[in-house]
Amino acid sequence: MSSVWIGKEKNYYEIEMLKNTSYGSFNWLWSDVDTILFDKDSLDFISAVIKLNEPIIVKRDKTSIMFAEEKYGNIKISNVGNFDCKLSDFTEYYVEEDILLSYSEKWIRTKPSIEVKVTLDFSIVLQNNEMVGIVIYKASKHLLPDSEYLIDKNENTESNLCIMLGDFFQLLEKIDDDLTQHERLELKMLFLEIYEQTLPYPDLQYKALRDTILNVIDYI
User: What pTM did the predictor assign?
Assistant: First the structure.
């Protein structure tokens, strides 16, 4: 499973500690409901763990999203009873732009929506005063291996990581319980080809992709 961690928290314990000071959904990573937290005092959005729906659809063209309005800043919860929120019915990765888009089936793209840019690379999509999606720009640069606790973001990561990531997501779509032994072996070899492409690069993002590929191969 793939997930997006948003905020300063790096593990379950830190997320759990926020329960006493937050409103929000407290289901964990692999549930059908994402963990979205808002500060009890300010009602500001403070953290989230969002499970990405799979398969992640790879797009080789550019995004066609047209937001009616773009804002900068944070968002607040308008009703403290609105604890549950699911933002990951669909997930798309745009290779050329290195954009990850995860959104709810409630989002009607043909109707006006608002993009709230919380940081330069992370936005929340609102429609009818409801969170309906997230957008992550420079998505590949935010990959981190599970074993790393401190973030050492490298802005100079090679652009071909986007291509490797897109190829990896497309191979994931081919995993099926009904694969023959020969088909499983062929699929493993294709994953290993991507793995070998990452070997010359020491960056954490490439390490994250390598670790994930090895986990997938073990699963197959």
Answer: 0.83
